[in-house]
Amino acid sequence: MPCLWHTGARLELRAVIEVELNTMPLPNFLAGSYELLVGLRYTRSRKRSGSGNRFISFISMTSMLGIALGVAALIVVLSVMNGFQKELRSRILGVASHVQISGPDNRLADWQAVAEGAAKNPEVLAAAPYVNAQGMLSMSGGVRGTIVRGILPEAEAKVAEIGEHMKGGSLDALKEGEFGIVLGSELARAVGAHLGERVTLIAPQGLVTPAGVLPRLKQFRVVGIFEVGMFEFDSGLALIHLADAQKLYSLGEDVSGVRLKLKDLFQSQAVARDLYTQLKGDLYISDWTRSHANFFRAVQIEKNVMFIILMLIVAVAAFNIVSTLVMAVTDKRADIAILRTLGASPGGIMRIFIVQGLLIGVIGTLIGVVGGVLLALNIDVVVPFLERIFGIQFLAKDVYYISELPSDLQQGDVVSIMLLSLVLSFIATLYPSWRASRINPAEALRYE
Fold it and tell me: For 121, phi and psi rounded to 5 degrees?
């Protein structure tokens, strides 16, 4: 019987509220949910309710916009950080290698056997030998230091993507004995070299003559210019044929090492460990996570820090709901007392203001998610537009590794941000709602 009476009282209270508020009846699936009806009604502003209610509505709108801006900013920033990670990984690994096997003193004999042994690992797709050394380019009186990499063009295309970033010429133009050279775009610009012109490559290893030690140098013809989009490589890498590098640096048949490409680049550490046990000899095996760990660790740390900072902005906006609800509770003390006299329970009063606060959080979060997703998907249009308007460049090529602002929107980030924003909004409603449920009807109506 008490349960039947409680259900009947709730239905009667709902009907009274519908009549008093001049609203349409609630749907059947919300039967008895007068808390939702009143909470939705309190969220809206009505001119006849007085300036106090309009001021509360203004604060509610401010809280919504704050949550929306915070959520949108968080989605955009995380998308940009994800884009940086993706671009760094693709551009670095487009020139570097997933796994690198080298010998002591940067010399590896019988590299064919090492490559064959590494190819037996099921994760290895391709292997290519290389010679890695330092040099100095000279042309028209200009001198520039560079990293010289000797490659086999047909094998290099299987482990790296430099051939896909050629601005002129091609890697296939590197022929044994013809002493051709492929330069990064910034390196070519620095020494003033163009396709077909000759540059002098000076090796640090000297020639011992009766007159003393003379530098080893050789003229190379520029047969290609590449641009991978990372200043480090574009300004400091020169490619020559493997046989020419062996002659210039007096390596004989030796090379510096073997570069491997894997099916899954995220398995590089496991593959490196497996190769260390499989291959025999004095070998040094490293993977891309070790040789370029600082780049990716720095980006990940920045991403985590930016998430915390921007989440604090969302939290501040969400907790503005507290002030909104506190003012609403103060303004609605008489209404709360009347609802209590009509049979509303303290839990029902609490749910009314939870609905009001959650509605602010949900609307603000949805606006922020939609705005953030749209901005993240169109960041390649928005950023150039802002650069043209203000006449600035956000990412200068000579300062940053990436000259364009990338974006990689991930569903998991959007869902996490949305859920966290809603949780913060819900937490912000608890204390004011609890205070509303503790109002004594007699005390509230004493001076009404």
Answer: -70, 130
